[in-house]
Amino acid sequence: MKGIAGNFTIVLFALLLVGNAANGQDRKLLQLARSEVTFVSDAPLERITAKNTSCTGLVDTDAKTFAVRVPIREFEGFNSPLQREHFNENYMASRELPNATFAGRIIEDIDFLQNGSYVVRAKGALIVHGMEKERIIPCSIVVTEEGVRITSLFDIQLADHEVLIPRIVQQKIASIIQVKVDLLFKREPKR
Amino acid sequence: MIRRWLGLLLGLSLNIAVAQYPHTRTIDLRIGQQRPAITCIAQDIQGLIWAGSDLGLLRTDGDRVDLVLRAEQGRVNAIAAYKDGVIVAVEKGDLLWFHGSTCDTLFSDTTWLHSRISALVVGTNGVIYAATYGAGVSMLSMSGSERLWTGNGLPDDHVNDICLLPDGSVAVATDQGVAKCKAGKVIRVFGEAQGAPDNLILTVASAGDGRIWAGTDNAGAFLWDPALKKDTALAVIGAGNGHVRGILVRQGLLWAATATGGPVIYDVGNGSGSYSPGPDAAYGVHPVRDFLEGRNGSVWWCDGTEHLHRADPSILVVQDHEGLDLTHISALCSDHKGNIWFATPHGVFRHDASFLGSGKVYRASVPIDPRRPVVSMDVGRDGTLWAASFGNGLMALHPDGRMEHFDAEHGGIDPNVLSVKVRDDEVWASTLTGMVRVRNAKAERFASPGVGFMFMVLPMPDGTVLGATDGSGLVQWKDGQLKPISPAGPRTFYSVVRDSRGEVWAAGPGTGLCKLGDSLRIGADRPPFDGEIFTLTELGDHLLAFGSTGCAGYDPKTGYWVDLTKSLGLEGVVAELNAVCHDDSGALWLASSKGLLRLQPAQWYFDPRSEAVISNILVGNSEVDVAPAIFTAFDRNSITFRYTAPCYVDPSALRFEYRLAGLNDRTVITQEREVSYPALSPGSYTFEVRAFVGREPMGSTWTSVRIHVAPPWWRRPWVIIGAVLLSVALAIWGIRTRERHLLDFQRMEQEQVRFQLEALRSQVDPHFLFNSFNTLVDLIETDEKKAVEHVADLSTFFRNILQVRDSALIPLSEELGLLHTYFTLEQRRFGEAIQLELRVPEEAVDHQIVPLTLQLVVENAIKHNRASLEEPLLIRIATENDHLVVSNPARERLSPPPSTGFGLSSIRKRYAALSKKQVEITSAHGVFTVKIPLLNRT
Question: Is the ipTM of this complex over 0.95?
């Protein structure tokens, strides 16, 4: 599991290094400026929502690759502080596995220089709770002067990532978690 | 637009609820308490299954699971059969080849670290195609590697899957469409731009005729023909189901891995239609991760859990159909239009024999009374359905809808009909009270006094009719007469059947299988399964017996009588009495408590053979590579063989027969999968093993390995030859030495003899005697007394000589005595002219000396030197370091007497033969010295 997290770091650093080395040249690297990742657990007895605005990420518009990191401990919301603690300590083990990541590439061809909106698929490795799962996630991308805004709505099956929910709380925590992502990648100011 | 309509149409056809599936078996690949998540599978040439999982690489024979490679050494990304083993792509960028018990790294590439291998395919020419996600396709061979990538026309470097096409080319599934490539060149590309329903191709499979099935991310799977000039997706399936991650095409069926649990099976050979997974737990609830084309037409898949599923398309199970329960069918028959008719407690129904989603169930208007069930049916050439009801007589439903009824009131027959069969224009039925024939709408009864209850009727081609009765054995109708034809043997038969060669077989409760015409009874009173035979039928060239707890097959050619309960998946299945029929394709349909079963003839049902594999060989405690020949040393002669045989149906029924030719020819039949030979003596052996299911190893082939135990070094030929040569050389040397010794001894003897002769001769030297007698004459005249003394001394001297003559050695004291006598004799002659100075210490007189040595030396000295009263000859005898030293002044006589030169040299030779010490003779400073060694006392 650590190996996977390590891989992600390598990808992120590689992107950063390439970006820095080629800054101002052909390769365009967009940094994540504003993020909002929300999840909803809609169980028969309880509905839990939490929001995270402390994500980091990069998009390489030439290679069409991306990497996003979501620090699990930064999720806020929940119905009670105790619930948040359980989320961190019991289910997500966020002390040992602090981040959820999604890194991969955008399948469809889009022009990041042309303003407009696109519907694309992002294919890559989604790592939650240290477990990797290959996913193809549909996203919508809006390209503006300001930057690139990516929004997506997808599901995560807890079983896929070996997040174990005790039977006693199965009525309160859904086995499929809906995730909503709203990310704004900003362009570097033109020199 | 057309594509969408097509997709909609096919998508709709999915929704027809048919719970039917090929017989599926699940194998659990748990390792102790650990449950591997299996993501890819392959089968090697020996039939062993290899599986890549999160725990590592697993191998199984159906019984044992081995963890061949741990995940720490590299997670398995892809796997494929290669030569006599499998190739495995691991995450750290290596391509490993596992064969036997060894593992070799075939290729290694750092680009595979970042762009993992997503699929492996081995081409017909041995080229390995490694599809990578990010670096195109690497074509690897021993002579070099080539690459297919965007640089030479591939639509994308991100490849998800690859498959081999019949013409030797490959189809490549990329993120931007599918491509057909041959000899390192991209021939054609098909993506969204060319009209494909989706660009993101997740999987490709060969349709077998050059066409390619491609599974997409969000538009199901489509068929593409690269040979067509026009780019078009020929057929789209499962569009409504979203993605298709895996495809396997086999025998006209397409198996698709979709988002739902278990594979969805489409009949692409017969047009549209699909099987959807039934409520069988074995089918699995997890989405399929990888397919595998197994042996005997089987299809394997894994689903990311520890389970492997193995489906057998030749066995189809139909449990219910459009809500119709098919687990309580009481009668079954087929017509000549490809339909299957079946009777349940709710009615009589008809369906086409393909049983795919396209057909509809048609309900026949045959009156049904649940208390009087339809127990037998048959359809005539004219399409008339004949239904036999136990209690309600015989009913005929004509194609025009007209009904006919025969019972006690109509036709006057027994209403309790047990079976009905149509032959041309006649209908034959068996009842509680005999046989019935219906011809031209008229019923006739045939009864015989002893014959009552008749379970089954069988019209024969020769115009006779056979009946299986309760209590009267088999009866035959001939020319209007019923006669028992099996007077001996069992009396009650449920079924009677005629096989493809015209022979008649019957079976009943406790009878086993009986053949008409002779007393052959196979399996004595019991079938191989535990229970009664309810239904006997034929399939292909074989007979099948279904019963209360299972099924058995009989091969009349070989006489094999095999329990098929587990291979056909009939555990716990109860067959209905004679509810069985054949359709036009030769398949067998059986009504059972599990539902309607369709069995397509397959040789493997009856084949008890299995191919044995020698999996490990241990010499001592260390494992050696499994090779055709094993060489070992005499002190490592404890050898253990582990063997297995791939068997995925019923591994517990597997038996092995082995022998070690060279040790003895005795074969051993066992269920153990290991044998040890603790101490093999040097030599050559052949270990042979074969596997089989059932009681006897019928026709199984031997798998063998040769063992050579080398003899110890001292028993190797060159060592033996060397030893022989050495011993011969030693013997020759010894003989020669001994010969030399003998010669020496002989020479010494001769010397001694000559010495003695010489001594005697010298003693009786006429000069000596003459001188002695002269002296005596003088003495007689002068001194009579001295003369007497002289004669006495002379006599003593000669007596002493005679005494010592034969001794090799004598003590010095004796020799000195001898010398004294001699010297006294000589002194009488010479008087004071010769003098003897004797300085021999007391302790030296015990030493040994060659006899007469001193006498000889002193005689020599007197003989050769001048002596006078003026100049007396002084002879000194002393000892010096174990030597006796005799010295005298050297004063040569002016006229030396004649000498043989024998005296001194004789002494020297005798001492050389006796001792290492030499006699030294020196003449220096006017002194002549003879050093005689004193020998030790013996």
Answer: no
